Amino acid sequence: MTGPLSFAVLGPVRAWRGRSEIDLGTRQQRLILALLLARGGGAVSVAEFVDLLWESDPPPSAVNVVHRHVGMLRRRFEPGLPTRAAGSVLVRDGAEYRLRIDEESLDLLRFRRLVARAAGSSGEPAVALYREALALWRDRCASGLHGGRAHPEFVAVDGERFAAVRAAADAALRTGSVRAVLPAIRLAAEYEPLDEALQARLLLALAADGRRAEALAAYADIEHRLADELGIQPGAELRAARDSLLDHDAPAAGARSPRGVGRAALDVSRAQPPAQLPPDQPYFTGRGDVIAAAHKLVAGDDRPTALVIDGMPGVGKTTLAVHLAHRLAARYPDGQLHADLRGFDSGESVMTPAEALRGFLWSLGVAPAAIPAELHAQAGLYRSILAERRMLILLDNCRDWDQIRHLLPGTGGSLVIATSRRRITGTTGPGGAHPLHLDLLTDGEARELLTRRLGEAAAADPAAVDEIVARCGRLPLALALVATRSVGRPGLTLPAVAGELAEADGRLTGFGDAYADLEAIFSWSYRALTPEAARLFRLLPLHPDREFATEAAAALGGVPVRAARGLLAELAAQLLVQPGDGRWRMHDLLHAYAVDLGEEHDAAADRDAAVERVHDYYERSAHAAHLPLLPQVPLPEPAPSAHGVTGRDFTGRAEAMAWFAAEQRVLTDIVARAGERGRNRTAWQIALAMQNFFQDTAQFRQWAATVGAGLAAAGDDVTARALLHRSLAGACYFLADLDRGLSHLQQARALFERLGRRTEQGHVENNIAEIRLDQRRYHEAIRHAEAARALFRAEGNVRGATNALLAIARAQGWLGRHAAALGMFVEARRQFESLGDLHGVGTTQAWLAHTYSMIDDLPHAMATWQEAIATFRDARAPHHTAEVLVSVGDFHSANGDPVLARRAWSEALAELDGTDSPMARRIRDRLLWHR
């Protein structure tokens, strides 16, 4: 790539070489570059970089980290720059750094030049220069990099923007050309909603552009925000802007009749606009993100006609809609309409669009005799009236698009806020309906809701509050019912309430008198289901986990996957959440409701059959998933399902590993509990199928626990016990419990000899050789590995024989016989490559590199280590990747390069992704002692 360098900091930090964008690396590197750019070519000290990256309590190595990040940035700007070279773009001057940039290469410097030219001009040329300068901004300075607070340098640059916006507004108002800079004024006012000088200019600009009604609504919004967030009234400048709006003559309300309606048809006695909003919830809390999104949408140029809030039953849709309507009401001075459409009540009580329109038209002053009989005529009259007004319409409990589409305004400045348990699909985008999904409260929001409702009682017992929040599953309806119950019974303490919920063990009966309320709310959605979807809903609690895949639900319901997908989509419209990747989740309280329904409506035999089907599905899927992981001893094929259930198929290793990761909790739960249902074979089959997954993800304790549970379920099955003992030995080996591992291997060897299974005996002999290698008993290791190789050759098992050769080569290398070891490693690698065994190839490469390092052939050692890292990453084997990286780090440390050593160890720790394995602890120790 060639061409000049250019940079941007007026928004996200970016850099280009010619037309090609440069990858700027980590967040820390982008922060360093952002501060350099915000200085506009000025110097930045290392101490400032340390404060920027850590704010407080920097590590002892902070200065070295800064230098390393700077070095990496240099090489991104100058790719051919040698390590530790000074460079010509990002230069160092003592304890400071600076960027060599000019006006043409940095947007901030171009912005400053244009603003200076605008300040020295007048009239429309000045406005044009301001417009060009403000067009350079794409977001806040260095957006996307701020943590808890923005750095003062970035705030100062943002301040230059807002000063330019104020100057641009003044120049535009003087020349009568506000439309040129109105979008920039709007955007800046959204960023700084409490900047009264900026907001005053927005009001004046809107009025000058002929948008006086919008300006008045904006003032009401600003006034409310100042009172709500700062507890103050608008200042003199903002009030003066408001007064200037009121100085103009305004047309009288209702001066023009809607098209097609004579004045005689209007009830002019209704002088006051309708104000039908239900009262706001005094204890409303949380939902800041959704409220902010709604404010942004209605303040934008492409305002939607409707905001449709969807979510599961009891999640607080109506409460939020009412609260949001009160927050926005000042923007709509012509009044508010409200209707509960009862979309999920029984069929006859659902409000029709015609019924809702008649009520709205009457509220808008249309005489009953003048209301048309036809729905389309009613909707036309309704839209004609709204076209002349700015009104807020609240529609609660909408069933679907057909129920609300006639109730939406056509043109004009009115807004609908609607709620539904389903995602309403209809016209979206500018001028259409915009969905706002409502999820559960966060833990903090749920605690705040209880604390605000219960006061001192909640503040005095936070542990009970946490327990109640957990038992209510952060569902606002459940929390509100518990709070109401607690307030209504003064003698009932919070710990007692928490205890009752815990004793109910996830059943709705724990809510006492509130049970009926929860059941009623949930039943509205349940009654709307088709019989097939209702049956599946009742069976879903029989799945071992709250989250499940489509295929598992199909097995549970005894239906094809395609049919299950359709039923789950129906449930997801009201009663399920879809986290993604074809998976589904049921809220705890809906789970409890479904349990009650299932026990009431479904026969025990039908429920038992559903559990058997889901166990069949997981046993067969686990078997299919373990095969792409190339197990040394593939498991026997499960017997055909008596219920006709088949497992899912896997296209390769990556898909199988992803499935094991997604289903790990379910599979381990089945292993632990299958014996209770007399499915011992299912338990040990799944346990063994997960062995390679546990090994490759370094979950050695989980491996030991799961296979141990499988061993407990195996009973007197000799084959199963032999396989499980050998698997447990592998877990013990990786947990560094070699003696226990050797004991399991000896038990496995005795059982395999009894069964006459020579291939499995070979694997055990090879595993014993591995332990002897770790114990540095190299001659014994060779003896066991040669015994294994002979057994494998007799059985024609090439992979097993190659693994044994690998163990012999390692022992030879440790004994100093390097030439012999190298020859064996090369032969083993060739065999593994022909077998397509990535694990075998990577392991051989790692030992080959180690042997090269032992004979000081450093180029071959480093190159082969890198090959091993790439191979293990392709194999999705992070534990083995980390092992190789540790070897690389140890090599650099021994050769006096601590920087490269720490880099390799840190990369190894990242591969383990927070696990607490012995290897992870050893790596942390290395990093601690080599700071």
Structure characterization notes:
Keywords: DNA-binding, Transcription, Transcription regulation. GO terms for molecular function: ADP binding; DNA binding. Pfam families: BTAD, NB-ARC. Belongs to the AfsR/DnrI/RedD regulatory family. This is OmpR/PhoB-type domain-containing protein. By secondary structure, the chain is of the alpha/beta class. It contains 41 helices and 14 strands. A five-stranded parallel beta sheet has the order 8-9-10-7-11, sandwiched between helices. About 3% of the residues have low confidence. Strand 9, helix 15 and strand 10 form a beta-alpha-beta unit. Helix 27 packs antiparallel against helix 28, helix 30 runs antiparallel to helix 31 and helix 40 runs antiparallel to helix 41. Among the domains are: 192 residues, Arc Repressor Mutant, subunit A, CATH 1.10.10.10; 165 residues, P-loop containing nucleotide triphosphate hydrolases (Rossmann fold), CATH 3.40.50; 61 residues.
List the helices and strands and how they pair.
Layout: E1 5-8, E2 14-17, E3 20-21, H1 27-38, E4 44-45, H2 46-54, H3 62-77, E5 90-93, E6 96-99, H4 107-119, H5 123-134, H6 152-175, H7 182-191, H8 196-208, H9 212-230, H10 236-246, H11 288-299, E7 306-310, H12 317-328, E8 336-340, H13 353-363, H14 375-387, E9 392-398, H15 401-404, E10 415-420, E11 433-437, H16 443-454, H17 456-460, H18 462-472, H19 476-488, H20 494-503, H21 515-527, H22 531-539, E12 547-549, H23 550-557, H24 561-572, E13 577-580, E14 583-585, H25 588-601, H26 604-626, H27 653-673, H28 680-689, H29 691-696, H30 700-714, H31 718-734, H32 738-755, H33 758-774, H34 778-795, H35 798-814, H36 818-835, H37 838-854, H38 858-874, H39 878-894, H40 898-912, H41 918-929
Parallel strand pairs: 7-10, 7-11, 8-9, 9-10
Antiparallel strand pairs: 1-2, 2-3, 4-6, 5-6, 12-14, 13-14
Helix pairs in contact: 1-3, 2-3, 4-5, 5-6, 6-7, 6-8, 7-8, 8-9, 8-10, 13-14, 16-18, 16-19, 18-20, 22-24, 22-25, 23-24, 23-26, 26-27, 26-28, 27-28, 28-30, 28-31, 30-31, 31-32, 31-33, 32-33, 33-34, 33-35, 34-35, 35-36, 35-37, 36-37, 37-38, 37-39, 38-39, 39-40, 40-41
